[in-house]
Design a protein that fits this description.
about 170 residues; mainly alpha; Tetracycline Repressor, domain 2
């Protein structure tokens, strides 16, 4: 297996582990076990658990941004895409344990790992940029108000999405 393939397999396993149990409870030994390597191999590739999690956040952000870019490039109505994105069942699904939203919710709460904080901030900015482009398409095609500040609306959407974890914990 090439070094790049090994790194990708570690990232895939780490994404699963961290999405299922979170950063604090996720163990590099569990990641190694899923890949079928020793724990030192994980550290040889990433150095630290926090660097591994930061790479997971960046990889997940790549996936989400590509998905939003495909939405932007599609012919589907933006209002319909936003309706699906904000549907309560969809929000519950993407923020549940094992889903990618759980990774971002976790990353945004990490305050003692600079590389994780940096990855979370960079991902959020990338999401805002991608959502702004989607909203601009909706505005240009007359689906959204002509005077809509698409950047402000994108940040509002991100705030709404980020609050999902809080909403769930206070509703219980």
């Amino acid at each position: 297996m090439s070094a790049e393939d090994r790194r990708e397999s570690i990232l895939a396993a780490a994404t699963e582990v961290f999405a299922e149990v979170g950063y604090l409870r996720g163990k590099t030994s569990a990641v190694a076990q899923r890949v079928g390597v020793s724990e030192p191999v994980v550290f040889q590739n990433f150095g630290t658990k926090s660097a591994l999690f930061a790479a997971v956040v960046e990889r997940a952000a790549d996936h989400i941004c590509r998905m939003i870019e495909r939405m932007t490039d599609s012919a589907q109505p933006v209002v319909g895409l936003l309706t699906l994105m904000l549907d309560p069942d969809h929000l519950r699904a993407v923020h549940s344990a094992g889903a990618v939203g759980a990774i971002f919710a976790d990353a945004s709460s990490i305050t003692d790992a600079p590389e994780v904080e940096a990855a979370a901030r960079a991902s959020t900015r990338r999401f805002a940029t991608a959502l702004t482009a989607l909203l601009e398409r909706g505005r240009e095609h007359g689906e959204l108000r002509a005077d809509l500040d698409t950047e402000a609306a994108a940040w509002w959407l991100l705030s709404r999405l980020a609050s999902q974890k809080f909403r769930r914990s206070t509703a219980a």
